[in-house]
Amino acid sequence: MNDRDRAAGALATARKVVFFTGSGISAARGIPTFRDKLTGLWEKHDPERLETAQAFRENPQLVWGWYLWRRSQAGQAQPNAAHLSISRLAATGKQVSVITQNIDDLHERAGSQNVVHLHGSLMNPICFACKRPAVITIDQLQVSAEGEWVEPPRCTRCNGKLRPGVVWFGEDLPAGAWKAAMAAVRNCDVLISVGTSGKVRPAADIPEIALASGATVIHVNIADVCLRAPNELMLMGSAAQVMPALLQVTPSR
């Protein structure tokens, strides 16, 4: 029996399924990641350098403008077949959870519930000073198609500058998100890791935690990231192609 058949069999009998997703599931939608080469206004800037608290302190207009542009790019993208197949699996009666490293909202727009954002979300700004969540108007989200430097709005509580509600390099994951992720991972029957690089910790440890808890782990990726544990399966290919084919053959329970 090959890995695809074994994966279908594991899903057929699973009651609790966790999807652990990374940039590979959204890349086909044109959403740039920090590893992508920038163009236009951002061409001379290192995206990894822009994703730090220090960069925001030094030039908040640059960083806020960069994230407004990223939010605009994410807003124009649409969920693909992989995102949609996850929400359709939940409709079969299985208990489905999503843990994502992505900061876009494509899972939610595809209809998924119980989405845990390990690295925060572009959609939810917070105050750089007091860390409280903030609400901003549609006008404050406007940015040109090419991007531009923009003065960050101010917090209505402390007057601090607003920043994106994402986890920057050197920052801890939100405690609540990690706790929720661990509860799901340690109690699932199958974990499907989709489009993750396996390089960003502690998120990269999630498949191993699932394996240690007795789950079957299915990797969907264009690169072989399987460690060859007994209950670990590798499905090569793009998420948008592999996921619908895999989940379509899973009988409803």
UniProtKB/TrEMBL annotation:
Domain Deacetylase sirtuin-type positions: 1-253
This protein's UniProt keywords: Cytoplasm, Metal-binding, NAD, Transferase, Zinc
Catalyzed reactions: N(6)-succinyl-L-lysyl-[protein] + NAD(+) + H2O = 2''-O-succinyl-ADP-D-ribose + nicotinamide + L-lysyl-[protein]; N(6)-acetyl-L-lysyl-[protein] + NAD(+) + H2O = 2''-O-acetyl-ADP-D-ribose + nicotinamide + L-lysyl-[protein]
Catalytic site positions: 119 (proton acceptor)
Residues that coordinate or bind Zn(2+): 127, 130, 155, 158
Family, as annotated: Belongs to the sirtuin family. Class III subfamily.
GN (gene name): cobB
GO cellular component: cytoplasm
Main location, first listed in the record: cytoplasm
Required cofactor(s): Zn(2+)
Name assigned to this protein: NAD-dependent protein deacylase
Signal peptide: none
Function, in words: NAD-dependent lysine deacetylase and desuccinylase that specifically removes acetyl and succinyl groups on target proteins. Modulates the activities of several proteins which are inactive in their acylated form.
Free-text remark on how the cofactor is bound: Binds 1 zinc ion per subunit.
Organism from which the protein derives: Pseudomonas lactis
Annotated EC: 2.3.1.286
EC primary class: transferase
Ligand binding (NAD(+)): 101-104, 195-197, 221-223, 239
Taxonomy, superkingdom: Bacteria
Domains (record comment): 2 residues (Tyr-67 and Arg-70) present in a large hydrophobic pocket are probably involved in substrate specificity. They are important for desuccinylation activity, but dispensable for deacetylation activity.
